[in-house]
Design goal:
Helices cover 41% and strands 22% of the residues. With 138 residues, the chain is an alpha+beta fold. It has one domain (4-137): 60s Ribosomal Protein L30, Chain: A. The protein has a 4-stranded mixed sheet.
Length: 138
């Protein structure tokens, strides 16, 4: 599997989103709409198109543009990672799925770049997943 690289706008700070603040809620909806457009472009690009396949185990590197981020870098991560789960690029952000997370500064035109490196599943993981699916079907 190849790495998935996605350029996105800078996510909003979780500090602004965790209280019920309807202005920030509208900003979050607007951010998701722009991010969805960026994903559609990435999905259709001729070289290295994005596959939406719920990557099960992965390492993630998040690069943020220092000039564009107005909050602490860790405050942007919650919205970004939850978004990647909601659009089925990654399966979950639980420890058994996200095995490594790196956040660093970079000079980026859109403000945020996410690189997801899939980690192949072991045979034990495949067997566990199959057993879970069979249990759910019973």
């Amino acid at each position: 599997m190849t790495d998935v690289v996605i350029d996105l706008p800078v996510p909003l700070s979780v500090n602004k989103l965790r209280r019920i603040n309807w202005d920030q809620h509208k900003r979050a909806q607007a951010w998701r709409a722009v991010a969805n457009n960026y994903l559609m472009v990435a999905k259709r690009r001729p070289v290295n198109p994005i596959r939406f396949d719920r990557i099960e185990r992965f390492e993630m590197t998040v690069e943020l543009d220092e000039k564009s981020v107005k909050s602490d870098p860790d405050n942007c991560l919650k919205m970004l990672i939850d978004y990647l789960v909601s659009v089925n690029i990654i399966k979950n952000d639980a420890p058994q799925n996200m095995r490594r997370l790196v956040v660093e500064w970079a000079d980026l035109p859109l403000g945020c770049r996410v690189t997801i490196k899939p980690i192949p599943l072991t045979m034990k993981d495949v067997a566990r997943n199959a057993a879970t699916v069979m249990e759910a079907a019973l």
